Inverse folding.
C-alpha cells in the first residue's frame, strides 16, 4: 500500500514539524558543544563543578532530550488523525524549547520558564492522543 495514499496530504505539515524539531535538537547540541569548549568541560563529564552557566546550557539540552521521546509518540498519534492540529501544537512545543533554552542560557535557571508556553503544545498533543484513543474505542 502506498503511504501517500494512506496519509492525508496535510500530513506533510507534520513531517515539517518533525524536521523543525530536528533543527532544534541540533541547535541545542551545538550550543552544548560550544559551551564545552568555552568552559573547558571535557567529555564524558556531564556537568561542571565550576561553571553554573555551562550546567544551565547542558541542562536545557538534557531536559529537552528527556521529554522528546514522549512528545514524538503523542505527536505522531495526534497527527495520524488530526495532522494540522498536531502540527500547530508541535510547532508551539518546538518553538518553546528555544525560548526555554535561551532563558536557561542566561545562567539563571528561573528564566527557563520563558518557555513554559510549550505546555500548550505538549499537553495539547497528549489530549488529542487521548481523544483519538477514545474514538478508536468507540466512545466518541
Amino acid at each position: 500500500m502506498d503511504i501517500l495514499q494512506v496519509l492525508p496530504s496535510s500530513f506533510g505539515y507534520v513531517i515539517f514539524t518533525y524536521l523543525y524539531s530536528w533543527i532544534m535538537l541540533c541547535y541545542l547540541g551545538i550550543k552544548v558543544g560550544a559551551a564545552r569548549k568555552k568552559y573547558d568541560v571535557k567529555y564524558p563529564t556531564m556537568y561542571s563543578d565550576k561553571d553554573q552557566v555551562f550546567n544551565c546550557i547542558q541542562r536545557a539540552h538534557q531536559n529537552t532530550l528527556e521529554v522528546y521521546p514522549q512528545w514524538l509518540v503523542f505527536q505522531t498519534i495526534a497527527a495520524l488523525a488530526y495532522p494540522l492540529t498536531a502540527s500547530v501544537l508541535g510547532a508551539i512545543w518546538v518553538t518553546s524549547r528555544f525560548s526555554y533554552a535561551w532563558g536557561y542560557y542566561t545562567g539563571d535557571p528561573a528564566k527557563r520558564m520563558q518557555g513554559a508556553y510549550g505546555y500548550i503544545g505538549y499537553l495539547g498533543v497528549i489530549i488529542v492522543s487521548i481523544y483519538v484513543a477514545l474514538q478508536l474505542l468507540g466512545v466518541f
